[in-house]
Description:
It is a single chain. By secondary structure, the chain is an alpha+beta fold. It is 54% helix and 14% strand. The structure holds acetoacetyl-coenzyme A.
Amino acid sequence: LHSFRAYSKFTEDDVRSALGSVCRKFAESELMPIASKLDKECQFPASQIQKLGSLGAMGILVPSDYGGAGLDTAALSIAVQEISRGCGGTSAIVNIHNALYADLISRFGSNDQKEKYLPNFVNGTHIGGFALSESASGSDAAGLQTTATATSCGFILNGTKAWVTNAKEAKAIIVFAVTNPQKRHRGISAFIVDIPSEGLVIGKNEDKLGIRASSTCDIVLQDTPVTRDNLLGEEGQGFKIAMSGLDCARIGIAAQAVGIAQAALDCATKYAYQRKAFGNPLLNFQAVQHRIARMATQLEAAKLMALSAAKARDCNPFCTKEASMAKLMASEAATFVTHNCIQILGGMGYVSDMPAERHYRDARITEIYGGVSDIQLTVIAEHVVRNYGF
Ligand code: CAA
């Protein structure tokens, strides 16, 4: 990708499609053959992540000055979609790292922070994470309880973060904590926390339904010191940093859902072509054809919305409505398509010899993380109604 970019005659569209085709080939050769093993063994794809780093996929939105690919959200969407077709768990690692770690450091970090926390994180050596949720504040993100108490040289963090993707492997995590409890969301700040750090303990890896190649853990912070240099953005700006990161992550999750749905449609169609019933391939039956038609139509709509939200963000970073709509639509499409894939395969869809059941399990997270569908509906309604100016 880096050498491709060096030729100025190529447009951004050329570079995006080059990244897409590199990621597609990578997914087919390096992820599809091992996705089932990664899922069964909850195994982090370390060497694959390193290779994705060398292909430019771990710093898609990061400027080239810090070793990134210097591309846009449309490129992130295309890359995540292709990687997701190969392995839903790996695409979770890649999307969260890009959208909720690297891009946030890139946009809100000081020069020193970018120099310290980007180059080794975008070349595939290290992974980053994002710690916003807590056991009692998921949807109500502003209700978080972790505190950051100011000291003479920085802050002391105390609290427990939950559902932190990439926590087990991460070398740094963006942690959100309350610096001023009187100000509710305006009293939340963001900190870059090194792993390991004094008083920081990573909890057990959650035994998840899907995306099992990615780790998800609690992080306990007990009197964890953080220097003032590691405050990301301004004090009190944390909630807005988190929300703007989630806009990007939701677009990536929509792309992840599209990739999973594409893998399920591929699986169902190939099976229906090969498998015979009543003396005919399943594909000859109208009931199966109609299922495939509905699956492909949902997938196409999701693909268009995912890309359109990505392009909206590339024109205007305030793309909250588009991001939520794309995530809502694509995640429901992925659940629909993977459900129907299992129906077409019948018993073979229900056992782990075929990838259909994994696609179904992987799809479910896209309706949950990055904000459950009910929250996306709330966000969308608020923006739609606001446009009427009531
Ligand atoms: N970008 C920038 N600023 C934003 C914003 C955005 N997308 N959305 C809201 N804001 C700003 C608002 O403008 C407002 O600013 P002012 O202070 O100037 O008024 C401020 O933030 C507060 O906004 P709201 O009043 O809308 O905030 P709220 O408390 O009502 O919450 C919410 C809104 C949409 C429900 C929000 O809490 C939310 O998105 N919840 C879901 C959280 C979520 O997605 N969690 C997933 C966490 S990550 C995860 O899943 C694990 C992982 O590793 C992926």
